[in-house]
Design a protein that fits this description.
The structure holds 2 protein chains of 2 kinds. By secondary structure, chain A is mainly alpha-helical. Chain A is built from 8 helices and 1 strand; from the N terminus they run H-H-H-H-H-H-H-H-E. Chain A has a single domain (4-211), classed as Ferritin, core subunit, four-helix bundle (Ferritin, Up-down Bundle), CATH 1.20.1260. Chain B has an 8-stranded mixed sheet with strand order 14-24-23-15-17-22-18-21, sandwiched between helices. In chain B, strands 3-2-1-4-5 form a 5-stranded mixed sheet, sandwiched between helices. Chain B has a 5-stranded mixed sheet with strand order 8-7-6-11-12. The chains are: A mainly alpha, B alpha/beta. Chains A and B meet through helix 3, helix 4, helix 6, helix 7 and helix 8 of A and helix 3, helix 4, strand 5, strand 8 and helix 20 of B.
C-alpha cells in the first residue's frame, strides 16, 4: 500500500492545508467533482494513446489504464454528487478549487505529439505524484469511510500504473529510462510554472481590464444604452443594396 | 476553383473543401482531435481536407471564414457596455477571450496556412448557414430560414434563394437581432433544467415528451410576440446578454421555480421530475409555435413550395416536423450539419457561388464527407489482441450481421467515409434490434452510459418507411438526415419498443439504397429474418466522447463497453471473452508486474 511517506516533500509540508481543504463539506465536494473531471480527461488522453501507439502490448496496457482512469472519474463524480445530494452547497467557498491538482488531466497532454517513451515517462511521474497526494488525501478523510475507500481503491490502481509505465519504459529504451523520467519531471515543473505564470498574467490582465472598465467605459456605456433604447424589437430589414466586401471583418 | 471553408472558435469547429463548385470533403475537428465539441482552430481538419484532395495551401483560390469576427466582437463589446455596471465581472473575461485569438481570424489563418491575406475572405454567420442549407439541397428555388443562438448580431434570418445555371442568389431579407434569440431561449432552459448548454439541447427535446405543456403561459412571458410576427425576449428574465456565468435571472427562477441541480437524476415519476418535464414540454411548444408562425408567414410571402432551414435550431426534429405539417411548405430541407460545423461548408459554397459567381453545380445529396475507415487496421489490432476476427465477402457479412442483430447482439458498424454533422447516419453507427425495452435500457446502461429517459432512433429503408411510420408528404425527405420526429404507427409500437419514445414518436432515418447501399442491404436481410426491416441506429460513441472516426477508435470503444461485434470494411471482430488475453495477464505472464492483491 502506498503510504503518505511516499508523498513528495512539498505535499507533506502542505498537509495542514490539505487537511483544511478537506475538512469543509463544500470544498470536499468540489475537490471530488474536480477530480472526477481530471481523471476522466486523463482517461481520455490515455485512451487516445491506446489508439495511436504501434505497440500491441502498450495498446492493451494503455487501454486498461484508460479504463481505470475513466472508472476513477466516475467514482469521484458519483461520490461528490452523493455528498451534494446529502447536503447541497451552502455558499461559494474561498479556495474551493484545486490549487495543486492530482492526476494528469490538467497537463494538456498532446498524445499524438508524444513518442511512447516520453508518454510512459510522463505517465510514470504523473501517477507517482498523484499516488503520493492521494495517500495524504486518504488520511484527510478519515471521518468519511466511503471517500477514504475510493482513495484506497485508486491508490491500488495508481501503483499498478506507476509500475507498468516504468517497466515498459525500460523495455522500450533501457539505456535512456532514467533520462526520460528526469525529462518528464522537468517538463512537468515547466508546465506548472507556465500555468502559474499564465494565472498571474491573467490576474493582472483582469485587474487592468476592470480598471479600464470603470475609468474609460462609462461614457461609451451611456451612449450604447441610448442607442439601445432607439432599437425596436422584431424584424430588422437587411438592406439588399448593402455592399459587403468579402474581405471585410465587419 | 479550390475553396476552403473554416468554422472555429465558438463550438464545433470544422473545415470543408469545395473544388469547382462541388464539396469534396468536410470534417469536424472533434472527430480528429477526439475532444467533444472542439472549438479550437481546426488545424487537423484543414490538414486532412488538403491531404485528402492532394491540394497544397498555396493552390487554394480562397479560404473563407464563416463569420465576420470583428462584427461579432463589436456585438460582445456593445452588450457589455449596455449592461454597465452589472457586466463588470464578465467584461475582463469576455475581452481576454475575444482579443486573445478570436478577432484575429485573418492573421491566424494566414500564419497557419502560409497564404496571402488577400485570399482570406469572410461571410456573415447566417449567410453561411443559409448557404449550407440551400446550396446542398436538391432544389432550384426555395425559401430560406436560419435560426441559432447568435452569429454576429443576427439570431434568425428569413429570405429566399435561387439557383440558375449562370448565377446563384441568396437574399436574406430580414433578421431578428441579439439578444432576441430562439436558440438562446432554448439554451437558457437547457441550463435551467441542469443540462450542458450547446451540447444537451436534445435532452430537453427528449424530456419534453414526458411532460405536458402546462407552463406555456409562463414561457410566453419570457418570449413575447411582436406585432410584426417576430418575437422579443423579456430581458429581465435572462442574464446571458450580460454574463457568461448564468443564462437566467432570479426573476426567471421566481417564475418557473428552483432550477434542477445537474447532479440530481431526473425521475419523471416524482412531482419535481414532472415539473421539469412540463417545463421542457412548454418551451418546446412555444419554440415550435413561434417557428411555425414565422415559416408560415415566409411561405405566404414567397409562395415557394420548398423551405431550406439551417442553424442549430434546425436540429430540433419536433419543430421541423411541425413546420412541415403546418407552415404550408411541401418540403423542408435540413442539411446533415445545420449547426456551426456546417458553416464551414456553407461559407465555401457561398464564396464559390456568390463572391466568385461560379456556375451552379448540384451538391451530392449525402452526408459522408469525412475520413474513410480502413478494415485492415481493425483486423491487425484485433488479431494482436487475440480477438476473434473474420474476413467476409459482402453478402456473407450482411447475412452474418443480420443474424447477430436478430439474436440480440449490439453491432458497431463502420463503413466508408464518416458523416459530417452530429448524426450517425449509417457509417459510424451502433446498430441493434429495435423490438424490446430491454435493448433500449441495455444500450443506455451498458454502452452509451446515458439517462434512461432518452430515446433511440430507428433506420428504415425508404421502401418500407410508410408501413411503420406515419410520414406526411415530404416526411421522407426530412427524415433523410434524421431531421424530423414522426409517429410510429400504433400497430407497430409494441414491436418497435426500443425506438418508440414515450409519446409514440421516433426520430426516424429513412434510408434510400443509393445513399448507403450496404446498410440498406443489412436492413433488408434483417427484415427477411424478422419481418421488420427496421434497426435501432445510434451514434457510435459513449457519453462525453465524439463519434468514432478511425477503425482503432471504434475498436477501443468496442473493447471497453458492451458492444458484441464490430464491423469495418470486410472485417468482423467479435469479443472472445473466455480466451481474451488482458494486458494484465500479459504482464503477469512476464512475471514482472502484477496489481496489488493479485498473486504473481
Amino acid at each position: 500500500m502506498f503510504a503518505s511517506k511516499g508523498s513528495a516533500p512539498i505535499d507533506r509540508l502542505l498537509r495542514p492545508i490539505h487537511k483544511w481543504v478537506w475538512s469543509d463539506h463544500d470544498r470536499r465536494v468540489r475537490k471530488l467533482l474536480i477530480f472526477g473531471e481530471v481523471e476522466t480527461d486523463g482517461g481520455r488522453d490515455i485512451l487516445r494513446a491506446s489508439e495511436v501507439t504501434p505497440d500491441p502490448l502498450l495498446r492493451r496496457l494503455y487501454l486498461e489504464h484508460a479504463i481505470d482512469e475513466l472508472h476513477h472519474g466516475v467514482m469521484f463524480k458519483q461520490r461528490g454528487e452523493e455528498l451534494l445530494r446529502a447536503r447541497p452547497f451552502t455558499a461559494a467557498t474561498f479556495f474551493s478549487g484545486s490549487p495543486m491538482p492530482g492526476g494528469h488531466g490538467l497537463d494538456d497532454l498532446r498524445v499524438e505529439d508524444q513518442s511512447d517513451p516520453k508518454l510512459l515517462a510522463f505517465l510514470h511521474i504523473a501517477e507517482k505524484t498523484a499516488a503520493g497526494r492521494f495517500a495524504i488525501y486518504k488520511e484527510c478523510v478519515n471521518d468519511d469511510p466511503k471517500t477514504r475507500e475510493i482513495f484506497e481503491h485508486i491508490l491500488r490502481d495508481e501503483v499498478f500504473h506507476m509500475n507498468y509505465s516504468y517497466q515498459q519504459l525500460g523495455r522500450l529504451t533501457p539505456e535512456l529510462q532514467r533520462r526520460h523520467v528526469w525529462r518528464a519531471r522537468a517538463s512537468r515543473m515547466w508546465n506548472r510554472y507556465l500555468r502559474i505564470a499564465a494565472g498571474v498574467a491573467g490576474l493582472f490582465g483582469g485587474i487592468v481590464m476592470t480598471l479600464m472598465y470603470f475609468v474609460l467605459l462609462p461614457p461609451f456605456a451611456w451612449a450604447a444604452r441610448r442607442a439601445e433604447r432607439r432599437e425596436a424589437p422584431g424584424w430588422q430589414p437587411i438592406p439588399q443594396d448593402r455592399a459587403e466586401s468579402p474581405t471585410s471583418l465587419y | 476553383m479550390k475553396i476552403l471553408g473554416i468554422s472555429a472558435h465558438y463550438h464545433d469547429s470544422a473545415a470543408a473543401l469545395v473544388i469547382d463548385g462541388v464539396p469534396v470533403c468536410a470534417v469536424q475537428e472533434e472527430r480528429l482531435s477526439r475532444k467533444k465539441n472542439d472549438a479550437s482552430f481546426p488545424l487537423s481538419a484543414i490538414e486532412w481536407c488538403l491531404d485528402q484532395a492532394k491540394v497544397d495551401p498555396g493552390d487554394l483560390d480562397a479560404v473563407v471564414f464563416y463569420e465576420r469576427s470583428m462584427l461579432k466582437f463589436a456585438r460582445i463589446l456593445t452588450c457589455s457596455l449596455r449592461a454597465f455596471p452589472r457586466s463588470w465581472r464578465s467584461f475582463p473575461h469576455a475581452m481576454k477571450n475575444s482579443l486573445g485569438e478570436k478577432v484575429w481570424a485573418r492573421g491566424i489563418i494566414a500564419s497557419h496556412l502560409g497564404i496571402g491575406r488577400e485570399k482570406i475572405l469572410f461571410t456573415g454567420h447566417h449567410q453561411a448557414h443559409a448557404a449550407a442549407a440551400f446550396l446542398t439541397a436538391p432544389v432550384r428555388r426555395a425559401a430560406v430560414l436560419t435560426a441559432d443562438g447568435v452569429g454576429e448580431w443576427a439570431t434568425l434570418t428569413a429570405g429566399h434563394g435561387e439557383r440558375r445555371a449562370d448565377a446563384t442568389n441568396i437574399s436574406l431579407l430580414r433578421e431578428i437581432r441579439f439578444p432576441h434569440s430562439l436558440g438562446m431561449l432554448y439554451s437558457t432552459f437547457t441550463a435551467y433544467l441542469g443540462f450542458a448548454v450547446n451540447e444537451d439541447e436534445y435532452k430537453v427535446m427528449g424530456l419534453a415528451a414526458y411532460g405536458r405543456p402546462t407552463m406555456v403561459d409562463r414561457v410566453r412571458k419570457v418570449i413575447q410576440r411582436t406585432p410584426d410576427g417576430a418575437f422579443a425576449l423579456a430581458p429581465e428574465y435572462f442574464e446571458f446578454q450580460t454574463t457568461a456565468a448564468r443564462s437566467y435571472s432570479s426573476k426567471f427562477v421566481d417564475l418557473f421555480g428552483p432550477p434542477r441541480p445537474s447532479y440530481e437524476p431526473i425521475d419523471v415519476e416524482t412531482a419535481e421530475g414532472r415539473r421539469f418535464a412540463d417545463c421542457a414540454a412548454s418551451v418546446q411548444r412555444v419554440l415550435e409555435d413561434t417557428l411555425v408562425d414565422i415559416a408560415r408567414a415566409l411561405h405566404l410571402e414567397t409562395g415557394l413550395p420548398d423551405l431550406c432551414f439551417g442553424g442549430g435550431v434546425a436540429l430540433n426534429g419536433l419543430a421541423n416536423a411541425r413546420i412541415l405539417a403546418e407552415s404550408g411548405f411541401e418540403r423542408v430541407f435540413v442539411p446533415p450539419a445545420p449547426g456551426d460545423a456546417g458553416c464551414a461548408l456553407g461559407a465555401a459554397l457561398y464564396a464559390d457561388r456568390i463572391y466568385f459567381r461560379q456556375p451552379d453545380r448540384d451538391a451530392p445529396d449525402h452526408p459522408f464527407w469525412g475520413p474513410v475507415v480502413d478494415g485492415a487496421h481493425l483486423a491487425r489490432a484485433a488479431r494482436e489482441d487475440d480477438q476473434h476476427v473474420d474476413e467476409l465477402e459482402e453478402g456473407a457479412l450482411v447475412e452474418r450481421i443480420a443474424g447477430d442483430l436478430a439474436a440480440g447482439r449490439v453491432i458497431g458498424w463502420m463503413e466508408g467515409a464518416s458523416e459530417f454533422g452530429p448524426r450517425a447516419l449509417g457509417h459510424r453507427s451502433l446498430l441493434a434490434a429495435p423490438h424490446s425495452i430491454e435493448m433500449r435500457d441495455r444500450l443506455n446502461r451498458d454502452i452509451k452510459h446515458r439517462e434512461a429517459f432518452r430515446p433511440f432512433a430507428p433506420v428504415v429503408p425508404a421502401e418500407s418507411a410508410d408501413r411503420f411510420f406515419d410520414l406526411p408528404a415530404g416526411g421522407a425527405r426530412l427524415a433523410r438526415f434524421m431531421s424530423g420526429v414522426f409517429p410510429v404507427r400504433p400497430e407497430f409500437r409494441a414491436e418497435l419498443a426500443a425506438i418508440t419514445h414515450v409519446d409514440g414518436s421516433a426520430r426516424v432515418q429513412v434510408l434510400e439504397r443509393a445513399m448507403a447501399p450496404r446498410l440498406h442491404a443489412l436492413l433488408e436481410a434483417y427484415g427477411r429474418r424478422t419481418g421488420i426491416p427496421v434497426l435501432l441506429n445510434t451514434s457510435f460513441n459513449v457519453a462525453g466522447e465524439p463519434i468514432v472516426n478511425a477503425a482503432l477508435e471504434g475498436y477501443s470503444t468496442f473493447r471497453r463497453c458492451g458492444i458484441d461485434a464490430l464491423v469495418a470494411g470486410s472485417t468482423v471482430v467479435t469479443k472472445r471473452a473466455a480466451s481474451a488475453k488482458s494486458a494484465e495477464s500479459a504482464l503477469h505472464d512476464g512475471g514482472r508486474v502484477v496489481r496489488p492483491g493479485v498473486p504473481a
